[in-house]
Amino acid sequence: MKYKNWEDNLKKTLPIMEEVECKKCERKFFDEWNLLSLSTFDMCMLCANRNIDKETIERKYHNVK
Question: pTM value?
Fold first, then answer.
């Protein structure tokens, strides 16, 4: 319950942003770190850390093939 109140207050104080949904867990995110992960991997940070190995994550973030 506390987290839900915190999230609602946070959304009220932040500028209007578009929420993006993770294709794996179907949760919606609006913070910059998850948006970066969603644009790079098409999944949130939690799903990326669970499903992709560390070397692949480093290569994608540093644009190395």
Answer: 0.59
